[in-house]
Design goal:
The protein is an alpha+beta fold and about 250 residues long. It folds into two domains: about 150 residues, JHP933, nucleotidyltransferase-like core domain (Nuclear Transport Factor 2, Chain: A, Roll), CATH 3.10.450; about 100 residues. Helices cover about 45% and strands about 20% of the residues. It is built from nine helices and seven strands. The strands form two sheets. Strands 1-2-5-4-3 form a five-stranded mixed sheet. A hairpin with a 2-residue loop joins strand 3 and strand 4. It starts with a helix and ends in a 5-residue tail after the last helix.
């Protein structure tokens, strides 16, 4: 386990809560534990842990896909025991919920700051493009390992679909950030249309992303939720306006 001084230094540099920095550290060790399975890493944490480890927002959970849906193969308790031995962090499976298409794990841990918990969500949805990428050694005691991960384009397509289904501030923030990158928009559109079809969302155009009451819905949560994950929260209206101007390629 790292020294508390390393957490304090990270917290100072990122200007974020120490408990959030510790959770970010613990999530990396959990990734190591699950890297030997068939899980495919996705979501905002994949952006922060693999693609842009030094510039992306922090995350509070891990998202994976397991297209074959064999949840029993994961051997969660064995994985947690193995990670505990290697990291010095205490882990316990606190709660598990599952149905044939979804698995949620709530994992309690005790690291440098006392007990806390992390969430892991696993779906069985098909992944169109899987890559193998190294996890950046953002903490000094991380081992060297690789993880199966979705492409940026597919993560982006899932984020776009997500805002048709829910209104979470971090999805809008991630979409806004990804739109500033050099991505294959043709590939994004192709994957996005497949993914909305799978869930029968009836996508008719980008106007669906921006209901009239969107700002009213997001405003109570924007600053509160994002300020825990990033040190400078962008203006909500500007973010939404930028997204609206840049996603016309989906029409």
């Amino acid at each position: 386990m790292i020294d508390k001084r390393e957490l304090l230094e990270k917290s100072r540099k990122k200007q974020l809560n120490l408990a959030m920095i510790e959770k970010d550290y613990v999530l990396g060790w959990l990734l190591f534990g699950f890297s030997g399975t068939d899980l495919i890493f996705k979501g905002g944490t994949a952006l922060s842990k693999i693609y842009f480890p030094r510039i992306w927002r922090l995350s509070e959970d891990l998202d994976f896909s397991l297209p074959k849906g064999n949840f029993d193969q994961l051997k969660v308790s064995e994985i947690l025991d193995s990670v505990a031995q290697k990291s010095g962090i205490w882990f316990r499976l606190k709660n598990e919920y599952r149905n044939p298409e979804y698995l949620q794990l709530k994992i309690q841990y005790n690291a440098l700051l006392g007990k806390n918990w992390a969430k892991i969500d696993v779906t069985t949805e098909k992944v169109f493009e899987t890559l193998s990428k190294k996890i950046s050694k953002t903490y000094s005691d991380y081992p060297s390992f690789s993880m199966k991960v979705m492409s940026i384009e597919e993560i982006f397509a899932e984020k776009l679909r997500a805002i048709l289904e829910r209104n979470k501030t971090r999805d809008y923030y991630d979409i806004w950030r990804i739109l500033s990158l050099d991505i294959d928009k043709r590939k994004v559109r192709k994957i996005f249309l497949k993914k909305v079809k799978v869930k029968d969302l009836g996508f008719k155009g980008t106007d669906q992303f921006f209901p009239d009451d969107l700002e009213e819905i997001l405003k109570p949560y924007w600053e509160r939720e994002l300020s825990r994950l990033i040190n400078e929260v962008p203006n909500m209206s500007r973010v939404l306006r930028d997204i609206e101007n840049k996603i016309q390629f989906l029409d």
